[in-house]
Design a protein that fits this description.
The chain has helices spanning 2-28, 36-52, 57-80, 86-105, 126-148, 151-161, 163-168, 173-199, 210-225, 230-251, 262-306, and strands at 109-111, 201-203. With 307 residues, it is mostly helical. The protein has a domain at 2-206. It has a two-stranded antiparallel ribbon. It is globular. The termini are far apart.
Amino acid sequence: MLESLTGAVELGLLYALMAIGVYITFRILDFPDLTVDASFTTGGAVAAVMISNGGSPLLATICAFGCGLAAGAVTGLLHTKGKVNGLLAGILMMIALYSVNMRIMGKPNISLVNTDTLFTSIEGNTVLYLLVLAIVVIMVKLLLDAFLHTDLGLALRATGDNARMIRSLGANTDTTKIIGVSLSNGLVAVSGAMIAQQSGFADMSMGVGTIVLGLASVIIGEAIFGIRSVVRATLAVILGSIVYRIIVALALRVEFLDTSDLKLITAVIVVGALVIPTVRRSMKQKSVARRRTQELIAAAGSQGGRS
């Protein structure tokens, strides 16, 4: 049981960067970017090819980040300069990247067994492994928080809130959208590179459903920990990624469920995270309305008694 939970926390931290990337597009920019399903694989493919050919794991991860930035920039350009619908731009880029990823890998999958990766030196020490992952994720979170409080970061956040207003103030919303989508996919690609190194292989299908996993982490984090500020929101996304993985790990321990039910479990978790807060809000509103009605009835009764 403890080993299962430890593995869940480990996966949650590895996927946290992907969840942060999804948060940037879906929550900050309000942009439905489906590129992440393919850019995740791109990150894993680039890292696997470079490492399997004797390259530095750190350099491979950095190159994966750069390729993710490029993929996101193309999606942003299609949407802003090509005037392609945002959802369609993401779908088109996702389709195009499938062929690009196959070109990068040259075959459906690449093994990284018996090769040095970022985690080779700490694989035997679980505590150190988790500590290093947590430090990396927190560093990325702090850098993103700092960026989002700069002038460019504030313009990016304002673009998602009210693009027309920020344009009237002289900001170039096309630039902020391209930067936001590019940064998002860069983080997603880094997550893909780390997952490939942790699992020991990169596969053409490793990015399937990534967008759903990211949304699940974002929604669960927001529902449990709240989003009163950017700093708290990014922390909530990280914790949401960990909580999601723990829920999945516990669900898979149920006798009648197996790994083939993972997509169903994910769908149920996302639906629950979306519906439960709405139901709670509705019940609270009804309770307040009922209390006010009772107060009005009591007040009317007391006035009638005095008359």
